[in-house]
């Protein structure tokens, strides 16, 4: 694949095979994030799992200490007092049957989706719409809950869901290039720790195989795992 002049320049001075200490990788990445927009910082982790097996699925949620830098629109499926609680907590879209109907018709005006447990029989009908987008509420990641206020505040404040993809890779945006190096280091460590703690029972051998960090328009830098956590 041909890369543009800006990408080739950003890659100068980066050894694609070297494992960089986390601090150095973040510094090099920030120096190269020169776009006119505030680039997203992404972490990708290659895991020693085969997600086709149920006992090797990796998923979870982590609240980044410095937020994600993203403006997240939150949709909540709830009725009555819980619907009011969601609105008070800052949810952007709140509804019950009416919201199910809108979403079923393709009107998805939110990035994250939360539901009270009693709404799940209704929300379950939206599996074909929300599932492929990774937005289906799930109790394992705290998006099916009666504690609506905290779930909404968490989603708005920087909680990030993660789920392993077919190739055994977990990736997520963990901040913006405008963040300080320290903020990014803290966020990356929090994300990597959460993924490591989500190691499933069926995972054998080395769990975290590779970790890399990149900005939206920049090259990836491989990170030395021991600079994030001991001997993972």
Coarse morphology:
globular
Radius of gyration: 19 Å
Strand order of the largest sheet: 7-1-8-9
Report how far the terminal alpha carbons are from each other.
32 Å
Give a quick account of the main beta sheet: strands, pairing sense, barrel closure. 4 strands, antiparallel
Tally of DSSP β-strands:
9
- Helical content class: 25-40%
Annotation field: number of helices: 8
Written account of the structure:
With 232 residues, the chain is of the alpha/beta class. It is 31% helix and 20% strand. The strands form 3 sheets. A 4-stranded antiparallel β-sheet has the order 7-1-8-9, with helices on one face. A 3-stranded parallel β-sheet has the order 4-3-5, with helices on both faces. The two termini are 32 Å apart.
Task: Describe this structure in a few short sentences.
The protein has 232 residues and is of the alpha/beta class.
Characteristic key phrases:
4-stranded antiparallel sheet, 9 strands, 3-stranded parallel sheet, globular, alpha/beta, 8 helices, 232 residues
Secondary structure elements and their pairing?
Layout (H helix, E strand, L loop, with lengths): L4 H7 L10 H11 L7 E8 L11 E5 L10 E4 L2 H10 L3 E3 L1 H8 L7 E4 L4 H4 L3 H4 L17 H10 L1 E5 L5 E8 L4 H17 L10 E8 L5 E2 L10
Parallel strand pairs: 3-4, 3-5
Antiparallel strand pairs: 1-7, 1-8, 2-6, 8-9
Helix pairs in contact: 2-8, 3-7
